[in-house]
Amino acid sequence: MESTGVLAVVLAVLAMVAVLAIPGLPTVLALRLRPLTAAAALAPTSLALIAITAEIGHQARLPWSVLSPLVLGLLLGAALIPLGRRLTPRATAVGTADATADDADDGLTTDRHPASSRRPFFSRPRGLGLAVLGGLALGGGTVLVRALMMMGSIDAISQSYDNVFHLNAVRHILRAGDGSAWVVGGMTALPGEAAYYPSLWHQAVSLGVQLSGQEIILVSNVMMLLVSAVVWPLGLMALVRTTTACGPFGLFAAGGLAGMTAAFPQSLMSWGIVLPYLLSVALMPLVVMVVAHTAGLAERRLRTSQLLVLAPLILLSTALAHPQGVFVGIALGLPILGWAALVRARDLVLRAPGSWRRFWPLALLTLVAAVVSRQIWLVARPPQSSAVWKPNATLTQAIGQVGSLSPNATPAWAPLGVVMLLCLIAVLLLTRSRWLLASWLGAATLSVATRATPPGDLRYLLTGNWYSDNYRISALVPVVAIPLLAVGIDVIGRRLLRLLSDRRPRISAGSTVAGRIVGPIVGLLTVLGVLTLSLSSPATAVNEDYLEADWRSSVLLSPDERALLEQLPEVVPEDAVIATNAWNGSSLAYAISDRPVLNTFMGFEAEPEVHLLNGRLDEAQTNPEVCDAAEDLDVEYALDFGPQELHGRSASYTGLNEISETGAAEVVLQVGDAKLLRMLPCRDTDGSMTS
Question: What is the rounded distance in angstroms from the CA atom of residue 427 to the CA atom of residue 436?
């Protein structure tokens, strides 16, 4: 906040909230969803509409703006109004079962016989809302505080490889006036060629920049924080609310524990930095929710018509955020379908009424899903040569790490592992939410494999879809582990308090009131205890020290270099091209200064003239071919940020090193050691002087 004003932050936050919520609002309202489910569905619905309108606008040559998803959202919402009128406000496929479950037990309460006028507070709508808001505040607040401590400031720049692409891609959308994924992919392709790149993140951030008028770096960071601190906890709570029998305490636990492990989201807020994948995983609890409803395992079911609208929007936004989200969905969702098919098969064996009618559609769906998933898993994965990340733990260590929710390359934490084990047993023995165990086993198996499986065909088969990247795969476990913890803590707490209630005689009305208070207090202390246990683990300390380095170093862009880039618009004309080196951060002139650069990213395809200038721009005064290339590409300026580069590299583009000393350019702006140079007139192949 020192370098960015409060007003700028407020504008960026309001703009990104609007982008993530308003386009999908008409659709969500038309479906008449419950408040929590509606709030959780806003972001994926809005994002799906943004992605769709980006491609429609590209084909129709419409300028890219927030009006496009807003108009489509209004049209979709209007089309769904007749559907919404046929739905009751409660909209559950199990009639009054939901109300009965809530009335019977409000989470952690000792009042087991509530009359309609004496229902415990936390079983009422206001109490439920308070539990949800409390869970969002605790979990989202934990994520936000940890993230800002890691970043150092809200307008910090991640000093990482991928961040150069992500920030410049947003600028590319804004300058092109086109949000298509093929336009973004074309940023690093040859001129005139299009290439697909998952661009939902960049599309959303570009709209936030348009609405707020703030810098790309700030808006991108705000988007990252909102996705991690709001979208992620809401998804966890919606998953628990609609698919399990948890009361308000379980919802509070699901939201409150959202920031308990740095495996997600904190690790993906630094590693890479793979922001599109962060977005995809943050939406994954809703994918699990959709699969559980489709499989008929949800305790509080959505109407079929609601599910038919929500499911494609949620799945589309998750897949378009990052293609690896499809693999995550397979790993977490296919075990749920398999579990449901086994449950229906058991009913068939026991000759339960209607068992065949329930079994065959689910069995067919599971079979088709398995066949399609196998093809996607094997065909769409990257080549084995790209699966370069190696194991970093023994099998025993990996099991302990995964069981205690430790991030990649951090020690196991036995106390948290014990809590996790108790909750797994409780869910297995005391609830009907056992299907969560199947999904958790899918994620845990992959996480153990990436940490401990030696390089080879087996490792590639299990983890190659994520390049065997330990960080990306370790992020899957919290998606299901946190709901498991919430359900387990909820059911254990209920059983213990019921036992105490049965043994304690009720002497007066005052004792009954006190009993109602004890449960919520115990629940709050339990969640705080588990959260504290996790945050105080050695794994957390090791991980935070590592992640802070990606934000607080200057290996990509030093404070002096950033200060110089912020001054460029005062010196460099709007259309003048700047020769830059993405490896030393100077290419961020595109995102920060809104000036075209010769190289937008480390990996790119370009015409021979670009490569010539990268290697020999300093010869412009003595080599007519270099002079020609500079004139053809309108290169009028160059940035000299010294030889230091990311990942320990040095002076990759020799033509940009010390070009002022060869007489090819002169220094026109300097901050510290960072220099902006203007190219001097040179003689081309025709013998004439360029200006």
Answer: 8
Are residue 472 and residue 575 in the same domain, yes or no?
no
Q: What is the pTM of this model?
A: 0.93
- Determine, yes or no, domain membership for 669: yes
Contact (CB, 8 A) for 23 and 176 = no
Which of 461, 477, 498 corresponds to the end of one domain? 498
Residue 114: both structure tokens together: 């509530």
What local confidence, expressed as pLDDT, does residue 224 receive?
A: 98
CA torsion 212-213-218-222 (nearest 10°) is 10
Mean pLDDT over 419-433 rounds to: 96
For residue 465, the enclosing domain spans 390-498
Residues in the chain: 691
Pairing of strands 674-679, 635-640: antiparallel
pLDDT score recorded for residue 571: 95
Question: 448-507, pLDDT tens digit by residue?
Answer: 999 999 999 999 999 999 999 999 999 999 999 999 999 999 999 888 878 877 665 554
Cβ atoms 242, 287 nearer than 8 A:
no
CA–CA distance, 366 with 358 (Å, rounded to integer)? 13
Beta strand ranges found along 292-447 (DSSP E): none
Cβ atoms of 387 and 333 within 8 Å: the answer is no
Instruction: Report DSSP state, residue 47.
Output: H
The answer as to whether 104 is a domain residue is no
Alpha helices, DSSP H, located in 536-595: 538-552, 559-567, 589-593
Share of the chain above pLDDT 70, in %: 91
Based on the domain organization, do 573 and 658 belong to the same domain? yes
Alpha helices in 200-303 (DSSP H): 200-212, 216-226, 232-243, 248-256, 275-282, 284-294
User: Does 229 map to a domain?
Assistant: no
Q: Are residues 666 and 564 in the same domain?
A: yes
Question: What whole-number distance in Å separates Cα of residue 170 and Cα of residue 383?
Answer: 28
Same domain, 665 and 583: yes
Give, to the nearest 10 degrees, the angle between helix 232-243 and helix 248-256: 150
